[in-house]
């Protein structure tokens, strides 16, 4: 089997993507109409470590956002903790705000951009992504976090705000009660939860409400061909009409160490047959799993986000989808990407 781990260049895919995106079906987060995929913006602020070069490539970061917007992607995912260090906190939010301001799109087009941010992870002084992460879901902290995000994004209201992670110092009920009070605060238009189990999601829905009650409209969990332990969360979201936003949707599927005859060969073989990248085919797999799925692949250059977007134009028959599903390992891999570990001492 020929395994091609490369992605198409910007010249190979940009024109195709821009043309086909015009007629592509949109998806919904509550009442918000969005593109079939979003842009995961965290790599633009230099994380994970192999993306640290982006700290010296601000122009490339801005160009990546502009390329996504030009191609019709109107959903950008960020977070207040997406920063190379504790200071400046909110690095990524400021970057996204700058990219939107400098984009050549019309005022009407800019009004349709949905920026999702999140809070609940704290960063201590001198902490980096290799250090221990803290959590804070107290009412006072969440209020300050929401106000800070709105200021950095340059908006009066945040179109989608997500509770980032469970705070182990509080009960699930306490922190979701605190999230619920943000409705009265007036800055958040729509609420999402992130990194939750089915049990935690059900508690959140009971306290905050679902889409019909002006409550939770989205769930953002890690999900990919390599990490499928959240399938039950996806099933519940599909049942209730809650948007499911897979983070790390590609899951390192194209790395040589993850390509073996016993694991993801079916993905690579089908990608070869269809003459598409394995990354684009993985996006197509996500979109075929449920009409409420909106993957948010991270990207640090225009060509990669456009290649991911091209996955929304890949038609998978029921037979092909079943072939992909049956070709995945029975047990998905625990990727360990939730909390980065401190590197071993030399």
The portion of residues forming beta strands comes to: 5-15%
Strand order of the largest sheet: 3-4-5-8-9-10-11
Structural class: alpha/beta
State the shape: globular
Helix content: 25-40%
Task: List SSEs in N-to-C order.
Answer: HEEEHEHHEEEHEHHEHEHEHHHH
Question: For the record, what is the CATH homologous superfamily label?
Answer: NADP-dependent oxidoreductase domain
Mean pLDDT: 86
The CATH topology is TIM Barrel
Please indicate the count of domains: 1
| Radius of gyration, CA atoms, in whole angstroms | 19 Å
The level 1 CATH classification is Alpha Beta
Low-confidence stretches: 1-5, 12-23, 126-131, 335-346
Measured distance between first and last alpha carbons? 40 Å
Largest sheet: 7 strands, parallel
Contiguous helical run count: 13
GO cellular component, one term: cytoplasm
Keywords: Oxidoreductase
GO molecular function, one term: oxidoreductase activity
Domain NADP-dependent oxidoreductase: 37-325
Describe the structure.
It is a single chain. With 346 residues, the chain is α/β, with parallel strands linked by helices. It has one domain: NADP-dependent oxidoreductase domain (TIM Barrel, Alpha-Beta Barrel), CATH 3.20.20. Helices cover 38% and strands 12% of the residues. The chain contains 13 helices and eleven strands. The strands form three sheets. The protein has a seven-stranded parallel beta sheet, covered by helices on one side. Strands 1-2 form a two-stranded antiparallel sheet. Strands 6-7 form a two-stranded antiparallel sheet. α2 crosses α3 and α11 crosses α12 (302-310). It is globular, with a radius of gyration of 19 Å. The termini are far apart.
């Amino acid at each position: 089997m020929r395994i091609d781990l490369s992605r198409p260049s910007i010249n190979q895919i940009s024109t195709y993507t821009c043309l086909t995106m015009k007629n592509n079906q949109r998806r919904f987060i509550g009442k918000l109409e969005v593109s079939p995929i979003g842009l995961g913006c965290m790599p633009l602020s230099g994380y994970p470590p192999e993306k640290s070069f982006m700290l010296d490539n601000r122009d490339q970061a801005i160009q990546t956002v502009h390329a996504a917007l030009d191609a019709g992607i109107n959903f950008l995912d960020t977070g207040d903790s997406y920063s190379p260090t504790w200071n400046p906190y909110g690095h990524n939010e400021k970057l996204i705000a700058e990219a939107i301001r400098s984009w050549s799109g019309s005022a009407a087009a800019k009004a349709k951009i949905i920026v999702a941010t999140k809070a609940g992870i704290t960063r201590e002084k001198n902490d980096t992504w290799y250090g221990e992460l803290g959590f804070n879901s107290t009412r006072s902290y969440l209020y300050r976090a929401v106000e800070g995000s709105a200021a950095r994004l340059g908006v009066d209201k945040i179109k989608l705000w997500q509770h980032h992670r469970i705070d182990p110092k509080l009960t699930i009920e306490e922190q979701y009660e605190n999230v619920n009070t943000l409705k009265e605060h007036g800055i958040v238009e729509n609420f999402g939860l992130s990194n939750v189990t089915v049990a935690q999601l059900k508690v959140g829905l009971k306290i905050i409400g679902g889409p019909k009650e002006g409550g939770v409209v989205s769930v953002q969990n890690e999900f990919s061909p390599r990490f499928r332990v959240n399938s039950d969360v996806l099933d519940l979201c599909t049942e209730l009409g809650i948007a499911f936003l897979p983070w790390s949707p590609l899951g390192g599927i194209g790395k040589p160490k993850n390509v073996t005859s016993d694991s993801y060969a079916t993905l690579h073989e089908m990608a070869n047959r269809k003459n598409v990248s394995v990354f684009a085919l993985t996006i197509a797999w996500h979109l075929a799993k449920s009409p409420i799925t909106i993957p948010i692949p991270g990207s640090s250059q225009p060509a990669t986000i456009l290649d991911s977007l091209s996955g929304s134009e890949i038609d998978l028959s029921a037979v092909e989808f079943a072939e992909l599903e049956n070709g995945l390992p029975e047990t998905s891999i625990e990727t360990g990407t939730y909390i980065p570990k401190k590197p071993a001492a030399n």
